[in-house]
């Protein structure tokens, strides 16, 4: 625990030189000297992470030999010495120390006048890594009761900022412990795939759940815009959507090509450190005509179509670009039909779609119809409905299965067609009545992210309260609010990091569990195993939630019940805006 000190001991470094000494580098300190030798130490912080220390010393007089007892040494010429340790992992801001001894034959003590530390000029000691002041939650309390939905909504966007990958913008609010990261994403395939969101407590960019997250965030912004406006969150909501859609535009590298994942699942999950310190390979995976993926293509099309509505009248050029790509991707997914995990095989153990691709074909067609009002998409939706037997199975609403959302959207897009309204009514009845509830009142749909599933259903219920049968409005609002209230604290404690009474403090989340440099996250597996709270508060993030019997522990190692994820917060965010809108 504590400060990260990377010991790099070089003993027996022999250097012989003559003449007048020059100005010694500030990072070198003399420990002991005699007439023909001296012992010294080197200490400097690093600006970026690396594996393998490679230090080049430049001396002001020639040297004749170097002895290194603990690593490799190389005489590059008579005034340059290279010293290496190829196995050390050095984190951002970590201290590199090593000791050396210089022997010389003349009366003049040789000085180190230049130091190159893995490409960094370390001579002047100017590499000292500093951090900003501790982060302060910028989402103020509003006094809203029974829970501060407005503050919770604001904080949800702080969570999305904390999940950003790539070059962070100047207005990034989560600054002191999040910096630029994964800046070489896509380099292995010759494309710029920087940006987007890290999926959950890890650092993989999974395109399918990211697209689903984006669609649902945009949906809430479109249909509950008053709730966003009343709380001053509209611009933050748009920024959250755009951070994803900018990435999707990069990932669509040709008409029939879309990159759907960056990072390798198991390799990434074995690395518990800051995203800024990633050094492992991050391969990029794509779908194309030879290796298609209908769910991925059509969900990304839905996200871009929904986002085009968000930006229409705000940035029309951007809106049109999003819509153009949405059309291409939907056509791609429809023309070349195949489950996407058969093409991006690494996703199989993480985000394989068990519902198949029919729901994304329906969902994408409905969003494109909403964005364009072109009848071809409404006809496509009906064709998919008939061919895939929608209405016969109730379905769900999550990153995988879009049926619950499609029923709601279709009920207002295809006015007069009773199939969507009937399916929506049955979906909500099924969720409310056929699933068990925890002792605290949370509808228990699935063990993985039980809070997420309840929030997703609550969002659909609130949407139906506004746009569906007026006779069911009150019952939908009361039930949905009870689910969101559970997440916010009605069970006795909050499940939202940094919010309310007794919130989680040990979320399964790498970057917030790592201390600021120069303290180490990797040394002795500190970030994962230390028993205390995460050093940084991941404001606004929902953790997975309780088991069916209501039990839950604030345990960092429990990724089933205590991990966070971008899709966990998506419908929850819209539900907060809906409650705010309906109660004012």
TrEMBL record:
Residues 1-22 form the signal peptide. Residues 149-576 form the Glycoside hydrolase family domain. Keywords: Carbohydrate metabolism, Cellulose degradation, Glycosidase, Hydrolase, Polysaccharide degradation, Signal. GO terms for molecular function: cellulase activity. SUPFAM superfamilies: Six-hairpin glycosidases. Its EC number is 3.2.1.4. Gene3D superfamilies: 1.50.10.10. Pfam families: Glyco_hydro_9 (PF00759). It catalyses: Endohydrolysis of (1->4)-beta-D-glucosidic linkages in cellulose, lichenin and cereal beta-D-glucans. InterPro entries: 6-hairpin_glycosidase_sf, 6hp_glycosidase-like_sf, Glyco_hydro_9, Glyco_hydro_9_Asp/Glu_AS. PROSITE patterns: GH9_3. The active site is at residues 554, 563. One of its GO terms (biological process) is cellulose catabolic process. Belongs to the glycosyl hydrolase 9 (cellulase E) family. This is Endoglucanase. It comes from Scylla paramamosain.
């Amino acid at each position: 625990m504590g400060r990260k000190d990377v010991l790099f001991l070089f003993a027996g470094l022999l250097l012989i030189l003559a003449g007048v000494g020059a100005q010694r580098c500030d990072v070198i300190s003399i420990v002991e000297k005699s007439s023909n030798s001296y012992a010294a130490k080197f200490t400097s912080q690093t600006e970026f992470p690396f594996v393998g220390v490679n230090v080049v010393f430049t001396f002001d007089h020639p040297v004749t030999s170097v002895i290194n007892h603990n690593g490799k040494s190389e005489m590059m010429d008579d005034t340059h010495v290279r010293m290496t340790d190829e196995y050390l992992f050095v984190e951002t801001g970590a201290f590199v120390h090593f000791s050396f001894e210089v022997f010389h034959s003349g009366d003049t003590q040789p000085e180190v006048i230049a130091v190159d530390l893995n490409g960094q000029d370390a001579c002047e000691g100017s590499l000292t890594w500093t951090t900003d002041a501790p982060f302060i939650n910028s989402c103020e309390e509003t006094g809203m009761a029974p829970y501060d939905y407005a503050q919770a909504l604001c904080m949800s966007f702080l969570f999305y900022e904390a999940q950003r990958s790539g070059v962070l913008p100047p207005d990034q609010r989560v600054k002191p412990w999040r910096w630029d990261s994964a800046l070489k994403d896509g380099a292995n395939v010759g494309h710029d795939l920087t940006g987007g969101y890290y999926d959950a407590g890890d650092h993989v960019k999974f395109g399918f759940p990211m697209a689903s997250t984006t669609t649902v965030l945009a949906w809430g912004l479109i249909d509950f815009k008053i709730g966003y406006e009343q709380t001053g969150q509209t611009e933050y909501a748009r920024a959250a959507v755009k951070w994803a859609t900018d990435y999707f535009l990069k990932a669509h590298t040709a008409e029939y090509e879309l990159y759907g994942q960056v990072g390798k699942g198991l390799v990434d999950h074995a690395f518990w450190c800051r995203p800024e310190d990633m050094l492992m390979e991050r391969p990029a995976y794509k779908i194309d005509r030879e290796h298609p993926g209908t769910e991925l293509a059509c969900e990304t099309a839905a996200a871009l179509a929904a986002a085009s509505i968000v930006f229409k009248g705000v940035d029309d050029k951007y809106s049109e670009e999003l819509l153009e790509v949405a059309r291409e991707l939907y056509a791609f997914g429809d023309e070349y039909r195949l489950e996407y995990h058969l093409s991006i095989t690494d996703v199989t153990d993480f985000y394989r779609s068990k519902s198949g691709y029919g729901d994304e074909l329906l969902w994408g067609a409905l969003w494109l119809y909403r964005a364009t009002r072109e009848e071809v998409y409404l006809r496509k939706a009906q064709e998919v409905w008939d061919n895939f037997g929608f209405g016969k199975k109730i379905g769900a609403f999550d990153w995988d299965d879009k049926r619950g959302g499609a029923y709601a959207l279709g009920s207002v897009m295809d006015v007069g067609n009773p199939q969507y309204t009937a399916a929506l009514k049955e979906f909500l009845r099924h969720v409310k009545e056929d699933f068990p509830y925890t002792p605290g009142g949370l509808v228990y749909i699935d063990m993985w992210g039980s809070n997420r599933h309840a929030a997703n259903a609550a969002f659909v219920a609130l949407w139906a309260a506004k746009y569906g049968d007026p006779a069911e409005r009150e019952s939908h609002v009361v039930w949905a609010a009870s689910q969101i209230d559970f997440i916010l604290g009605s069970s006795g404690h909050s499940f939202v990091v940094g919010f309310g009474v007794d919130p989680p403090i040990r979320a399964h989340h790498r970057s917030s569990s790592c201390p600021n440099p120069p303290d180490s996250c990797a040394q002795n597996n500190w970030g994962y195993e230390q028993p205390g709270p995460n050093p940084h508060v991941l404001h606004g993030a929902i953790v997975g939630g309780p088991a069916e019997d209501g039990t839950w522990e604030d345990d960092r190692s429990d990724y089933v019940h205590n991990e966070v994820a971008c899709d966990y917060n998506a419908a929850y965010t819209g539900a907060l805006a809906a409650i705010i809108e309906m109660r004012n």
